[in-house]
Design goal:
The complex is a heterodimer. Chain A is globular and about 70 Å long. Chain A is about 70% helix and about 0% strand. Chain A has a domain of about 375 residues: Up-down Bundle (Sodium/glucose cotransporter). Chain A is mainly α. Chain B is mostly helical. Chain B is built from three helices and no strands. The chains are: A mainly alpha, B mainly alpha.
Chain lengths: ~550, ~90
């Protein structure tokens, strides 16, 4: 999610270790680790050393598994920490996450079944595979793949930041005076475990763990949304206190926030919701989870049950107001608002459950993201450019190794650099990934766009987005201070990503006209119109796997 | 890659069902992007300002709309396939 936390994440806690919470946390963590390794045997196909098996779970997941997988994937630990933190810091503007996730589902409903069909028909594992097949352009495919990898890396890093927030509040993050090794040891362990089972089990591991993650998350939020308001004297008191707090001047001298979006922030609110919704299913990890489903209808059916997560996210966001009312001490770091609120409000053992929910909530998306990035590298860099005659077994091996590399990269990000760097890149990532939309969504519906025009449009969007984001200052940083800037020509403040995509499309359309007039050569399209609506059971699109107990969820 | 080519003509037609399904999918965009229509505090619901409960209500409304679109598309597909199961 493209959120801009206002304060540094680097605050260390010195409250001492919360023993019971830590024990509960470790219990769940170990349970999940065991599940992760056992997942390799779950619905295993006979021939398993290929990318379809490791990287897409054999394309075998039914409605419920896909629901947990996509839910576990899109609603990440960082989301759980950052959305309420944004509300805590500034009020209404942080709630954009709710309209954002509302808008995602009609979009998925419209676009993704077509992508699923064409991918199933041609064995595409990534969006870049599709772009290459549709436009016959390795260059465009490479651009899409690199954008995807680049945008995913900081996203993985932020999952580790999410775990770190929880560890900090539990008191195992170490104080200022401990050595970096002791301080980061818990994170290193969590990371090593994650890397190991992703390596061995592929997409099946997060799919299985997602059951635990989401079960815990729903439980914690259901309890929190009833229990905490009762303790705090009801929603009236909570929002009155929040309204008062927001009216106080913030670091810029203006009021800190507002309870409902004011006239000057409505454009930002709407464009951020729309832009984020468009960006979300361009992310490699959402595509990976979607392509792993068993049929078109699994995807469509999921758009009708996934909003349950949006509802949960809405309730979760309200916890940000509760943290204000409760006077949660975040030590100047808004990111700690929710973990700290849990620790203050809940009995120790239940705080442990809540922390486990967030911690595991980081592992699931981090695993899927690293798999998605590995798929992209293997198919669209390794196979297309480095070793065109790679066998499925070699692809499988490379992907597993790259999934490790990607995670190491994310870890270095988190440990080596200031946390704000990861957040800045995540913000840029959202803007960048949006620029692949014309190639992907455009390609799903029409072949009118010229491949070179798409590439040029992409480049313009990337450059504009990066420069515009660089130019945004905030009270705490001179650059990358936020994801909003003035929209040229309209004069309102809006989401940079959306402005960039409009520029991108304009350039693409104009250049397509020019290139068509110049009769520039088109690439070869290997897809045919019927491919986009093909379903399981249609001729030529039969499931390539023995249907092993699909639909029956066996992960509890 | 050729056997599917027989049907695309019938799939491109704009049918009333598809228009309704399309409207169901567009409605949330109109409602959510029109921020000024809901950027207010009153009326509150059990103390929660309108801004928040209205948007959360839309989670439910959009779910119903998407479900309607799903059923419509589903039914049309079934009719086209001549009653074959999906």
């Amino acid at each position: 999610m493209t959120l801009t936390p206002s304060a540094s994440l680097a605050t260390a806690r010195t409250d001492g270790v919360n023993g019971i919470a830590l024990a509960v946390f470790i219990f769940f963590f170990v349970a999940v680790t065991v599940m992760g390794f056992l997942a390799a045997r779950w619905r295993k196909a006979e021939q398993s050393a290929n990318l379809d098996e490791w990287g897409l779970g054999g394309r075998s997941f039914g409605t419920w598994v896909t629901w947990f997988l996509l839910g576990g994937d899109l609603y990440t630990a960082y989301t759980f920490v950052a959305v309420p933190a944004a509300i805590y810091a500034a009020g209404a503007s942080g709630f954009f996450a709710v309209p954002y996730t509302i808008l995602v589902y009609p979009l998925i409903f419209t676009f993704l079944p077509r992508l699923w069909s064409v991918s199933h028909k041609h064995g595409y594992v990534t969006t870049s595979d599709f772009v290459r097949g549709r436009f016959g352009s390795k260059g465009l495919s490479l651009a899409v793949a690199l954008t995807g990898i680049l945008a995913t890396m900081p996203y993985i890093a932020l999952q580790l930041v999410g775990i770190q927030a929880v560890l900090d509040v539990m008191g195992v993050g170490g104080g200022e005076n401990t050595s970096w090794f002791v301080k980061d040891l818990p994170l290193l362990i969590a990371f090593a475990v994650l890397a190991a089972y992703t390596y061995s089990s592929g997409l099946r591991a997060p799919a299985l763990i997602a059951f635990v993650k989401d079960g815990l998350i729903y439980l914690v939020i259901a309890v929190a949304i009833i229990y905490i308001p009762i303790k705090l004297g009801g929603f009236h008191a909570i929002f009155d206190a929040a309204g008062k707090a927001f009216a106080e001047p913030g670091p810029t001298g203006k009021p800190r926030g507002e309870l409902a979006s004011g006239p000057n922030s409505q454009w930002a609110y709407a464009t951020l919701a729309l832009g984020s919704a468009l960006a979300l299913f361009m992310y490699p990890h959402s595509i990976t989870a979607t392509l792993s489903s068993r049929s078109r209808n699994v995807i469509r059916r999921n758009t009708t049950i996934l909003p349950l997560y949006s509802l949960m996210l809405g309730f979760l966001a309200l916890l940000g107001f509760m943290a204000i009312k409760a006077g949660t001490d975040t030590h100047g770091n808004a990111q700690l608002a929710i973990p700290q609120l849990f620790e203050d409000m809940f009995p120790s053992w239940f705080s442990g459950v809540a922390f486990a929910a967030i911690g595991i909530g980081a592992l699931v998306p981090a695993a899927i993201m690293s798999i998605a990035a590995a798929n992209l590298f293997t198919r669209n860099v390794y196979k297309d450019f480095l070793k065109p005659d790679a066998t499925p077994a070699q692809e499988h091996k490379v992907a597993k190794l790259v999934s490790l590399l990607v995670k190491v990269g994310a870890l270095i990000f988190v440990l080596g650099m200031d946390k704000t760097v990861a957040i800045n890149f995540q913000l840029l990532g959202g803007i960048w990934i949006l620029q692949t939309m014309p190639s992907l969504v455009g390609g799903l519906f029409t072949r009118w766009f010229h491949r070179w025009a798409l590439l040029a449009g992409w480049a313009v969007g990337m450059i504009y987005g990066t420069l515009a984001a660089y130019g945004v200052a905030s009270p705490t940083q001179a650059h990358f201070g936020g994801s909003n800037a003035e929209i040229p020509g309209i004069g309102q403040i809006g989401y940079i990503g959306l402005t960039a995509i409009v520029l991108n499309v304009v350039v693409t359309v104009v250049l397509t006209f020019v290139l068509r007039a110049l009769k520039a050569p088109d690439g070869v399209d290997e897809t045919s119109p019927g491919d986009y609506t093909a379903d399981v059971g249609d001729k030529g699109a039969s499931p390539e796997l023995p249907p092993a107990a699909v639909g029956s969820a066996s992960g509890h | 890659m050729t056997e599917q080519a027989a049907t695309p003509d019938s799939r491109q037609v704009v049918t009333p069902t598809r228009v309704v399904a399309g409207l169901c999918l567009i409605a949330p965009f109109v409602a959510m992007l029109w921020v000024s229509s809901y950027a207010k505090i009153e009326p509150r619901l059990i103390g929660i300002p309108f801004f928040y409960w209205y948007q959360m209500l839309w989670v439910l409304i959009s779910t119903v709309l998407t479900m309607t679109a799903y059923k419509l598309v589903q039914r049309e597909q079934r009719i086209r396939k001549g009653g074959a199961s999906t």
